[in-house]
Design brief:
This protein is mainly alpha-helical. The protein has helices at 28-43, 47-62, 117-134, 137-154, 163-177, 182-186, 188-197, and strands spanning 66-72, 77-83, 87-88, 91-92, 104-107.
Length: 207
């Protein structure tokens, strides 16, 4: 059965402004649990065990009026979490999507799942620590989200990011997944530059 999860590019032009309320989203521990339970369900060898994991996930999300599905893209599978109100009879109704920023996408396979992922992620976490030591916590929090993005979406060291990938982080991923404070949001573009500055690397966005 084809997946009815809408592509963000096809959704109505109703992107939230900079004042989007993070309370509209499930708490981060719930999102992390949904990812963990989905992966456990995918790895389970017994159907009953897999169904138990999915039921647990769905009940946790339902407490926040959210639901989950897995979208199969060309290069990876993606866990998509979105409000239950977007669906009717199990189908996504695009006219009900009031704010695409309320959708949450988490890669489950493909880029970000390579054998050297742990080494790459450790490198990116070291960059976060360097930023935290040299700058304030707002920059460190933003660079931590950039590290998440580069590790999980591209399995690449942060400093190997292209300008296109950094724009994707700023314009899409950060808005969907970061839950920043107003202070963090106001300096995120500068934070990207700071991440490169600590390693004396030139930021591709400056080229």
């Amino acid at each position: 059965m084809p997946d009815e999860t809408p592509d963000p590019s096809e959704a109505p032009d109703v992107l939230a402004d900079d004042q989007s309320d993070p309370d509209d989203l499930p708490p981060e521990p719930v999102v992390e649990a949904a990812e963990r339970l989905t992966k456990l369900a995918r790895d389970a060898v017994v159907d009953e065990e897999a169904e138990a994991y999915r039921t647990d996930r769905d009940e946790r999300l339902a407490d926040h009026e959210y639901t989950a599905r897995v979208r199969e893209d060309e290069t990876r599978d993606v866990l998509v979490l979105h409000p239950e109100a977007w669906t009717e009879d199990g189908q996504i109704r695009t006219e009900r999507i009031d704010d695409v920023d309320r959708g949450i996408e988490i890669p489950l396979s493909g880029p970000g799942e390579g054998d050297d992922w742990e080494e790459i992620d450790e490198y990116n976490r070291d960059v976060v620590d360097e930023v935290r030591e040299a700058h304030d916590e707002d920059h460190a929090a933003n660079v931590e989200k950039l590290a998440d993005f580069m590790s999980n979406h591209y399995a690449k060291p942060l400093h190997d990011a292209t300008a296109e990938e950094l724009r994707e982080f700023l314009e899409d991923y950060y808005r969907r997944n970061a839950w920043p404070t107003p202070e963090q949001r106001s300096v995120v573009e500068k934070s990207v530059g700071v991440a490169f500055d600590v390693a004396d690397e030139r930021c591709p966005l400056d080229e």
